[in-house]
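agent: user wants the structure for Dihydropteroate synthase from Terribacillus halophilus. delegating to structure tool.
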Amino acid sequence: MKRRIGSKEYDLSKQTLVMGIINVTPDSFSDGGSYTTVEAAVKQAQKLAAEGADILDIGGESTRPGFEPVSADEEIARVAPAIRAIREVVDLPISIDTYKANTAEAAIEAGASIINDIWGAKYDPEMADVAARTGVPIILMHNRKEARYDDLIPDMIADLEESIAIALKAGVKQEDIWLDPGIGFVKSFEENMTAMRQLDKITAMGYPVLLGTSRKRFIGTVLDLPAEERDEGTAATTAYGITKGVHMVRVHEVKQTARMVKMMDALVREE
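agent: tool returned. relaying tokens verbatim.
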């Protein structure tokens, strides 16, 4: 399975991609306030690139539970200058983490080359149109307004199929669609664990899959540790996801993850 992001093409049958997180927000659950200036964001981007990131994910609004929404104008003011500056010094594709079409479009104009939408193109009716018009890939994450499931995995698949249909109808190419099971979103602890154990049902849908477990609450529940001390739990869930067939992993701690992923790929992909 080969996929292009920006100017780079990846053979996902041989390599798991590492997406490094840069939140230019004052209130993200793990690193809020750390990279709110352009200079700090650039420095972090250079650090993550040196540590082995394949792609950088820039977010201008926290998505932690109970987060305060911000306007598209405020979000653009946070992410666009950072993306422009990072593009000047780091030769990696940049992902824009947003569910707002205006923000996505401004970010793409600034240099982003993939959209990471936590609402799977369902929140903003223009989002899929932006992806289609600009020709960039889009990551469709599983999400819903209420955590009520008749049967978790079939319901997740049905929700993701709705997102896929929206994207295809807007003109997004099939090869530009990625999926994300939305671990940590509208799911109880038990549901997150079930979704992890059955990730192969999501990867079997035929699209490349991004897994984002980094420092999330379900890891804290198991380890009884605060967010900043959950990197070992993140590594465990990430490695497990690779055995289930995911193609990209989204993490805060890139250095250890990149090394672990290289070893996992040698075990799992190079048969």
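agent: one observation worth passing along. The chain has one domain: 2-268.
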